[in-house]
Amino acid sequence: MSPMSDNPPDPRLCFDPEALRLNEMPRSFYLRETITVARELLGKWFARRHEGRWYGGRIVETEAYLGSRDAAAHSWRGRRTRRVEPMYMEGGHVYVFFVYGMHSCANIVTRPAGIAEAVLLRAAEGPPGAPVKLMSGPGRLCSALGITVAMSGADLLAGKDLRVFGRPREKQTRLGVSQRIGVEYAGKARNWPLRFFDLDSPAVSGPARLRSRAAPHVNPEDILCQEET
Q1: pLDDT at residue 161 greater than cutoff 60
Q2: What is the mean pLDDT of the chain?
Q3: β partners of residue 98
Q4: DSSP annotation string for the chain
Q5: Which of 16, 60, 107, 124 is the most exposed place for a label (fewest CB within 10 A)?
Q6: Rounded distance between C-alpha atoms, residue 95 and residue 56, angstroms
């Protein structure tokens, strides 16, 4: 992995994990079902260390991508290229891809090694004083933190400069859900309810019509089973 100091983070995102009583998430957190991880990443802090200080924000929007069975995933039907290879790593690694020739997008890999599933980080809220929309959208999130494809494959549990922090007893987020954004090409999978967001956060991205829906009672796992039959 290339040095991360080439792209410094926005200084307004500086925070102290210890002062907020945040702890590093264990490997077991990422090895679970991808939909569960996508939901429970809400409220966690995605952070990067730069020159001895931490910069980051509280995750408020995610999307789950379910590997070979998901036409919206880069690993659909077992696709395996040099770019996609980090998705096949053990849960807790980072997969970063470049899109539209201008934006980096960061994903947290889930499940045991060999199961190429991941959670896209769509938006986060910075610490007090940071602009509300600074990390509203996956491209903005990576730009604000200086995240690039050079960091793809980084292990969040290796004691390096990318981490996810959380509190043992953090306040539960009011969960919203919708179909994912920008996957119209994905056939039936474009309608899967795999985008999760904090109903109370002004940093959530996407159209207004997709920012106010409370989570339905139906279980997304059940919908996926129905689609596959």
Answers
A1: yes
A2: 90
A3: 104
A4: ---GGGSPPPGGGEE-TTTTT-EEPPHHHHSS-HHHHHHHTTT-EEEEEETTEEEEEEEEEEEEE-GGG-TTSTTGGG---TTTGGGGSPTTBEEEEEETTTEEEEEEEESSTT--EEEEEEEEE-STTS-TTTTBSHHHHHHHHT--GGGTT-BTTSSSSEEEEE-TTPPPP-EEEEPPSS-TTSGGGGG---EEEETT-TT--S-GGGSSPBPPSS-HHHHHHHHH-
A5: 16
A6: 17
How long a stretch of residues is the chain?
A: 229
Q: Tell me: the pLDDT tens digits for 65-105?
A: 999 999 999 999 999 999 999 999 999 999 999 987 689 99
The token pair at 8 is 């410094």
- Domain span including residue 189: 4-228
pTM exceeds cut of 0.85: yes
Contacts 24+ apart (CB under 8 A), 48-51: 48/4, 48/9, 48/145, 48/146, 48/147, 48/161, 48/162, 48/163, 49/160, 49/161, 49/162, 49/163, 50/4, 50/5, 50/8, 50/9, 50/146, 50/161, 51/5, 51/8
Instruction: Provide the CA 81 distance to its chain's centre, in angstroms.
Output: 21
CATH number for the domain harbouring residue 180:
3.10.300.10
Q: Which one has a higher pLDDT value, 169 or 127?
A: 127
Domain count, the chain: 1
